[in-house]
Structure formats: C-alpha cells, structure tokens
C-alpha cells in the first residue's frame, strides 16, 4: 500500500466534499442540531404541569393534600373550577393537563378509617405527560398516605417500613445524561452510513470508479482512502457532541476513556461495514438514501436509544438483539455514567466484536469482489 | 389555460413514469411507510414493564422473603435473582444486568414483629432515566401498600382487631384514551411523521436530479413556465401522499383499532394542506441544494428531526425552551399532529381545529411561493 496514493485519494475525497457548498455546513450542523433537539426535547423533564383542582371537601385535610401537589414542583395549580362540568373545556383547550378531584367528605371518611378515592384526571391524548403525571400523582399520594400511616402506626406502637429509594449514577434523573452517550453512537452511525454510502454510490453512478481502477491505485488503497475521510468527519462530529454535552448540558463523564474508545472503534467498523453494504446494494444515490432510512428507523426505535427496551412488548424484544446500536448504547452509557470497565462490559463488547467482524468483513470482501468485476 | 393544464399534466405523467420505472421506489413509497407504522406502533411506548431487578436479603426471615416476593409479583419489577452482598449489586449495575436493586436490612423481620421500623433500600440505576423515574414511583407506591399491610397484620396478631387507617387512593382516569394505550396516542402522530418523511425525501431530489442529468435545461427550452413545472412535479407525489394516508389510516383503524371520533372532512382538508406543505419544503431543498448528497442530507435533517422531535408526536412540547417552541412552529408537522390527534382521539371538529387548519393553509401558500421563487432565481 503506497501512502502517497492513499493520501491522494483522501485529498480528492475532501476536495469533492468542499466543492459542494451546502454539504460541509450540513455535516457540521447536523450533530449540533441533534444534540440541541435531543437535549431539550427528548431530555426535557415534564414539570410544572398546569393543573386544575376541584376541592369538594374544603377541609384542612383537602388543603394539605392540595399543598402536597403544589409543593411537589410537578404540578402548578392554575385553575380551581367549582364543578367537574368545567373540566372538559379546560382539558380540551389544553389550559390544564391534569385535574385533581377531592370528593366531599374526604376528611370525615379518612377519620373513619376508610380508603378514600382521589380523582386524578390526565389527558390521555398526550401519552408521555399522562404517564408521567399519573406517576407523580401516585408518588405524592403515597407520601401523603405514609404520613397518615406512620402517625396511626406510632399511635398504636405498630411497625413501619422505612424504604429509602435512591437513584444512583444519575441522581437527578436528567434524561440528557443518558441521551448524549446515545447520540454519540447514533450520529456516528448515521453520518458514516449516509455520507459514505452516498459518496461511494456517486462514484459508481458517474462512472468515475472505472477511471479510478485503470490507475495504479490498488483496491485496498481505494477502499481505505474512501473510508478514512468519513471516519475523520464522524470523529469531529462526535467530538462536537461530547463537548456540547459536557459543557452546555453538564453531562458527567465518570468512565475510562479507553473503554469508550474501544466501544467506538468497534462501532465505527460496524457502521463503515453497513455503509459499504448499503452502497453495494444501491445503484443510485436515491436508493442509497432510501436504504439508509430503512435501516436507520428500526435502529433508532429498537435500540433503546429513545424508548426504553423495558417498555417494548415481549415479542419485539428479541429483535432488539439484532441491532448493533443496542450494544454500543449499553457500553457507552455504562462507561459514561457508571464508570463500568471492559471487564464489566464483556458481554456487550463481545457482541460488538461479532458485529464488527461480521459486517465489516462481509462488506470489505464483497466490495473487493465488486471492484474486481 | 387549457394549454397550461396540458403542460402540467405532461410533467406529472413524466414524473409518474420516473416513479413507476424503479420498483424500489414503489416499495419505498408504499410499503415502507406501512412497515414503519407497524414497527413504531408495536415497539414505541412509555409504559415501562419488567424492569430487571436483583434482591439482596440481609435479613433472611419469613418477613423479608414475603416483602421481596411482592416485588416479583408486582409485574413492574422482574426479579432476576438475588445477590449475597453489596459488591454483587455493583456488579449487576455495572454489567447492566439489573436496573433496580432491593436491599432488606438486617433485623427487618424482628423490627416489624416488635412494632419497630424495618429498613429497606431500593437502589435504582439512573442511567436509563425513563425506567428509573417510573421505578422510583412504583417502589414508593409499593412500599406504601406493603407498610399498610404490615401494620394491619401486626394489629391482627396483637388482637387489636382490624386496624383501619384511612388512606387516600388515587384513581387515575385518562380522558380520551381510557386504557392509556400508547398506540392510540402515537399512531395519529406517527402517520404525520411518516408522510412527512416520505414526501420531503422524495421531492427534495427531483429537481436536483434533473439538474445533474442536464434534463432541466431541456425542460427550460420548452414553453413550460416555472409554476407549471412545480405543480406538475408536485402532483404525482401529492397523489402518492394521499394514497399513503389512506393506507395508513386503514391499517391504524383496522389493525390497531384506533378510533376516528371527529369530523373526517377536517382531517381530509388538513392532510391535503399538509402534503402540499411537506412537498413545498422538499422543493425548497431541491432549489437550494447543489448536489444530490446535500439534498439527501438536508431532507433527512428537515424531515426526520423536526418530524420526530418538534411535532409533539411523542414528546410533549409544553416544557421545551421558548426558542425551540418558535422553531417548532416553523414546521408543518406540529399543526398537523394536533389536527390528527384532535380528530382521531378527541372527536374535535372545525370549531376547535380551525386555527391549525388555517395555519396550514397559510403555510402551504407561503412555502409553495418560496419554492417557486427560489427555483426561478436558480434558473435565471
């Protein structure tokens, strides 16, 4: 392999990138847009939900219950309609997302030792808000009940379970902390797959591939020279993401750089392999784009990047094992947030080695064959 | 006028032949959206279940065993096994084998029997915040009901009779979607995103391709005007967009049982306008992009990201920063998702959705205008 020829191919590739005046800005805008949107939109934690309270009881207890909701930080009581009839309009127009209904006689029933229902109405047309709001409501009521129970238990000298629920590694539960390691992997994959497959297909579609093959350039040189510039671009993009994540969103980094690097190298090989495979099965640039979308969408959905794998139905879960991004996510998230080392992560790393060797190997051998034809 | 119509139809027919010549294109336009719908509808949800958990029983009494049992029975925590010390928990977390660890402290059983305080800790791995958040909520609620049970059985054992402690119990009702099915919530939004991806991606490259092949010059020589070319280019894709919408709606209602409660006319008008908006966005890219690559990447950026993130399809937009709110109004998906959700789930009609429909109409008009002007400038 001649380094000079290799350098020349890479130089040609970069010149071509620079000639398209929209392409380079897009390539560098992409990771920034991704971090900002994922960080703010997916990572936005649902808080300060506008809430209506209908207090039919109007007692000290109902007041304490209302206070428990408003002091939690999750609910902001903006409306106090007199009856349930007014609720429909409020929820329809989106002026409130949640309504809490305290029935008349709540305090009296509590004193009699009964279990009293508390109406919590959420707008089910907005699933994430609904699920989060009902969770918060349950948590607040549970804390309220625990107070009542402890008082009753202490009064008769009964037992109490003292449960300390503690979140580790990401105690503030900020979604963006889990998002940034995930974004690093998905940008790497997206960028290598999209930009590289386009570049390779273009060469074939325009017939410049044949011209290239009549020069003294060997196939290995051609392949390496074609791949390296895009790996370089992806590396710059990942650096952008990590820097924005670290210094703008304050994402912690607790792990070892080597574990992260190992994971990223393996995943880069897999992505390059997939990009090459895509360029092999596509004849036009548009087809390559379609194929990328075809691969990217299931990858995004099934990897656990946005939607937790625990929330998927049991029939879907086996499919997630076929997605390389799934393992890369485990490795990067664990390394970033928990400081897991190579020894802890041997299982996902092994899977990544299998993917990297399999996909990259297949792609390179098929590509070589294609070139020699 | 008739001549103009004939020219528009000629362009539309030419475009249509381009589409049908490539079978992959047909698959991409008609089959892929349905596959995406199925995948999304089955896989996406925020209803976390079966969170992998481990237990650490330092007490080893009947009380601690029954306490831990109730976690396995909860349906939320999937208890995979128990570890013998805290190092075991660290290992399980580091290897990502468990997200939750439940520790019963020594003396738990004795304390409960004696009417004291039994200590437990629930440790949650926060590196997957969605699951962790819900895990926290469930753990708190579960412990509350367990504490109540412990108190009741203690009272019974002491012969205090049935000790009644009044507690509050939340009864959550989700309006418009009482079973809280994620599919009901997601599918109307998904429909919009899928249509957006298909249409923007396809039109973004049409003019670039003509330019790269040199056929745009030939078209220029013909009596065709700029707006005729644009309309002719858009027509077949608009038609395919409508076909996609009908297909997706049929599958959503037939397979997933999504209700259609509102006025179909609002939905039809909305979708029609939305498709024009999306196609115009594609044409704007087509006019600006110097090459197929940049057109493809720009289309990906414009359709995929805002469609997913800024449409309100899966993520509530109320809590995002102001600047992004403004950006979200710059993409048509946000209006259309509101219309689709309103018509499908809330049974809304013109009265409620008029602002969204009008916004889309204005958007379509402006976007189409910008696309035409940009193309004219580009050609001049």
Enumerate the spans of chain B where pLDDT stays under 50 for 5 or more consecutive residues.
none
Q: Which oligomeric form is depicted? A: heterodimer
The value of Rg of chain B in angstroms is 29 Å
Count the strands of chain B? 5
Number of strands of chain A: 5
Nearest-integer average pLDDT of chain A: 82
**Major sheet of chain A, described briefly?**
4 strands, mixed
Rough outline of chain B: elongated
Overall 3D form of chain A: elongated
**How many domains, in number, for the residues of chain A?**
2
Number of helices of chain B: 14
Structural class estimated from helices and strands of chain A: alpha/beta
Task: Supply the key terms.
heterodimer, A: 373 residues, alpha/beta, abc type-2 transporter like fold, 4-stranded mixed beta sheet, 9% strand, B: 380 residues
